[in-house]
Design a protein that fits this description.
- The chain is α+β, with helices and mostly antiparallel strands and about 500 residues long.
- It folds into two domains: about 1-145, Beta Barrel (OB fold (Dihydrolipoamide Acetyltransferase, E2P)), CATH 2.40.50.140; about 170-330 and about 375-490, Bira Bifunctional Protein, Domain 2 (BirA Bifunctional Protein, domain 2, 2-Layer Sandwich), CATH 3.30.930.10.
- About 35% of the residues lie in helices and about 25% in strands.
- It has helices at about 1-25, 40-45, 50-60, 100-110, 155-160, 165-170, 170-195, 235-245, 280-300, 320-330, 340-350, 360-370, 425-440, 450-460, 470-480, and strands spanning about 65-75, 80-85, 90-95, 115-125, 130-140, 200, 205, 220, 225-230, 250-255, 270-275, 305, 310-315, 320, 380-385, 405-410, 415-420, 465-470.
- Helix 6 (about 165-170) packs across helix 7 and helix 13 (about 425-440) runs antiparallel to helix 14 (about 450-460).
Length: about 500
């Protein structure tokens, strides 16, 4: 059957190529002279409520539109077709009486997928559909390959990701997701501008691997003769700007992490990171909440949304410490147990989690949290007080130096944001970089390098600040009810 389909498609392509050659002979192939003045959505919005008589009285002429033929019905001397442009679809009516006879005969041979330009006037058909009565039309781009079937669309998941252009061409729901994505990002940018942040750009190629705990992509700069790393996160550069005198900066950035592919992870992804001098963790949690609620409104969501068959109340933001949540969800652990490395190691081994020799209490606590708590945080939950051991760039809590002034936001059982009071003590930061280097020497491929220039910057003095990173792709997944990150990336990374 597959060979039959391939053979059928090959015959279609050959036939369409013959038509293309005829167009080339006439000089009509791939025209660039037609400039549409209208689009389908605007015409339907402006004239969609007009009656047949009102349209006749208005006598709306000089309409011109370009689009792809997605439906066509030839009926002798008159034909109907549906054109789809970037905004939507509209019906056209082509007759031998209104257009040149030779052009009409050509039109009858045009195929689904061809991009055409038409001019005409508006009217309503007997079935009351707003339609363009065509008095001039031309071929703009000949389609050589057949479109996916109208009613089935592009249903093969793998093909949808690998040939996103076909997915967008045939699935209006896909196009709507990416329109919403743009609206969500616009709302985030507007909110940051509204509260006085400056949007900046920082390098995507770094001389050292740093800014977050993750495995980097490594590349080679031939002219400089040295290794570079694709950005894991823009953090260390954005904080250099605080040293330089900016007090509120943000970047909507592309970052890269050399990790596996899954429904939750793509090696190239989008984040928004921001830093504010003299801020508090609480006001940054409030700002994070407001950004998400603004994005929800921009995407047209209600306060209670559904994601992965789970109802989430976006008006119910709560806050709790990591240790309190561990105790709440693990009744067999006590307050003493969570400070006891032997008890934590046994707990993790009972959960079939391999415990590395380098892990201290803090890292084991994080593993317990991720294994037993994270998936249960459905409504938006800010988790605070993370161990310093797993927070190498965070400021220590003044009352409990084993913990950092840090929060993460979880929604629907998944992490959405990470924020903390920034470490601005150069000696403490240097010590933590040394710990990271030791971890890397012990085989931790996600550990950071020692960034001496960043230490030098801190030695010049960085004001106290709070920074936050918010995952844009995951936020779009939430607000468009998509279960895979591939459905919110136009061109996701895929296996061969």
């Amino acid at each position: 059957m597959a060979n039959d389909n391939l053979g059928g498609e090959k015959a279609i392509i050959e036939e369409r190529r013959k038509k293309l050659e005829q167009l080339r002979e006439k000089g009509d192939a791939y025209s660039n002279s037609f400039k549409p003045k209208n689009n389908a959505k605007a015409l339907l919005e402006e004239y969609g409520n007009f009656t047949k008589d009102e349209l006749a009285e208005k006598n709306i002429k000089n309409i011109s539109i370009a689009g792809r033929i997605v439906l066509k019905r030839v009926m002798g001397n008159a034909s109907f077709a549906t054109l789809r442009d970037a905004s939507g679809e509209i019906q056209i009516y082509v007759t031998k009486n209104n257009v040149d006879e030779n052009v009409y005969e050509d039109f009858k041979t045009w195929d689904l997928g061809d991009i055409v330009g038409i001019s005409g006037s508006l009217f309503r058909t007997k079935t009351d559909e707003l339609t363009i009565d065509v008095w001039d039309l031309e071929m703009i781009t000949k389609s050589l390959r057949p479109m996916p079937e109208k009613f089935k669309g592009l249903t093969d998941i793998e093909a949808r990701y690998r040939q996103r252009y076909l997915d967008l061409m045939t699935n209006t729901n896909t196009k709507e997701i990416f329109i919403k994505r743009t609206k969500i990002i616009d709302s985030m940018r507007k909110k940051m501008n509204q509260v006085g942040y400056l949007e900046v750009e920082t390098p995507m190629m770094h001389p050292l691997a740093g800014g977050a705990v993750a495995r980097p992509f490594k590349t080679q700069h031939n002219a400089l003769g040295r290794d570079l790393y694709l950005r894991i996160a823009p953090e260390l550069y954005l904080k250099r700007l605080l040293v330089g005198g900016f007090d509120k900066v943000f970047e909507i950035n592309r970052s890269f992490r050399n990790e596996g592919l899954s429904t939750k992870h793509n090696p190239e992804f989008t984040m928004m990171e921001w830093y504010e001098a003299y801020a508090t963790m609480q006001n940054q949690m409030d700002l994070t909440r407001d950004i998400i609620l603004n994005a929800s409104s921009a995407a047209g969501c209600e306060s209670i949304i559904e994601w992965n068959d789970t109802k989430i109340n976006l008006n119910n933001f709560t806050q709790s410490s990591l240790t309190n949540l561990i105790l709440e969800h693990n009744k067999d652990l006590s307050k003493d147990d969570i400070n006891n490395p032997k008890k934590l190691k046994k707990f993790l081994k009972d959960k079939k989690i391999k415990v590395e020799k380098s892990w201290k209490v803090g890292r084991m606590l994080l593993e317990v949290f991720e294994e037993t708590v994270e998936s249960k945080l459905i409504d938006p939950t800010f988790v605070t007080e993370y161990p310093v051991e797993v927070s190498p760039l965070s400021r220590r809590n003044e009352d409990n130096p084993d913990f950092a002034d840090r929060f993460e936001l979880f929604i629907g059982g998944k992490e959405f944001a990470n924020g903390f009071c920034e470490l601005n003590d150069p000696d403490d930061q240097a010590s933590r970089f040394e710990d990271q280097v030791a971890a890397k020497d012990s085989g931790d491929k996600e550990a950071m390098d020692f960034d001496q220039d960043y230490i030098t910057a801190l030695e010049h003095g960085m004001p106290p600040a709070v920074g936050v990173g918010l995952g844009v792709d995951r936020l779009v997944m939430l607000l468009t009810n998509q279960s895979s990150i591939r459905d919110v990336l136009l061109f996701p990374q895929l296996k061969n």
